[in-house]
Design brief:
The chain is mainly α. It is built from eleven helices and three strands; from the N terminus they run ααααααβαααββαα. Helix 2 runs antiparallel to helix 3. It starts with 17 loop residues before the first helix and ends with a helix. This is Inner membrane protein. It comes from Pelotomaculum propionicicum.
């Protein structure tokens, strides 16, 4: 689970990447194995990447994210409506990234539940400062690294349909989710779904 993972800033180099996550989900649903997908990336360049290292690293990251969700959710990501698929892609992302999950729970959902719809840069940096007090990893990050993470979070939330820009701030957007998604994201996904779907 995300809260057992180490903190990492790698999200700034591998952001939402919805199209790549969807393509990977489609390949998995077609019966391709992990090794098949890595080979397709390396030999056929299915993700259309210039650098060989990126052709190796990207499918590994997509597979890691998608390994956090089960097959019914994977099928929605592969073949569902874009809005639904983006929610599932975001769920996979927060299940594989501890810092983003904690941001969603401690800032995004908390703001919404207290009637505040705007997230400022200060909110992000206050959140990071709290994490730095209890984590040597986070406390060692440079200001440039933190700015890149903040900007990546903003982009991801907007791409996923969970926020929209308002100057330098973000306005929280409660996602519209059909009953099928609600039914599928319960159980072990419940704590993540509540942060994402703004459920109490």
């Amino acid at each position: 689970m995300a809260w057992k993972l180490p903190y990492t800033s790698s999200i700034k180099d591998m952001p939402f990447l919805f199209a790549e996550m969807r393509k990977t989900a489609q390949l998995l649903c077609e019966g391709n194995t992990r090794d098949d997908i890595i080979k397709l990336s390396m030999k056929s360049n299915i993700y259309q990447l210039e650098k060989e290292k990126r052709r190796r690293d990207l499918p590994l990251r997509m597979l890691k994210r998608l390994g956090t969700i089960d097959m019914p959710l994977l099928h929605i990501l592969a073949d569902g409506r874009d809005d639904d698929a983006k929610l599932i892609a975001f769920l996979a992302l927060i299940k594989s990234d501890r810092l983003l999950f904690e941001f969603m729970r401690e800032v995004y959902a908390d703001k919404f539940q207290t009637g505040q719809m705007e997230i400022s840069d200060k909110d992000f940096f206050d959140f990071i400062e709290r994490k730095a007090q209890s984590s040597d990893t986070v406390s060692g990050w440079t200001s440039n690294n933190l700015a890149r993470i903040r900007n990546t979070y903003k982009n991801i939330l907007c791409e996923a349909g969970l926020a929209k820009r308002s100057g330098k701030s973000l306005l929280i957007q409660k996602p519209i989710c059909d009953q099928q998604i609600y039914n599928l994201v319960g159980g072990e996904n419940d704590i993540f779904a509540k942060a994402m779907l703004l459920e109490v």
